[in-house]
Amino acid sequence: MRRWLISLALLLILLVGCGVNSPGENDDETISKAKDTAESYLIHNYSDIHQVEFDEDSSNPMGGVMVSGIVNGNEKANFSIDIEVENNFYVGSIGKGEEFPERKKECIEQTCDY
Question: Which of 26, 38, 41, 88 could potentially form a cystine with 30 if both were Cys, beta carbons 3.0 to 4.6 Å apart?
Answer without folding.
Answer: 26
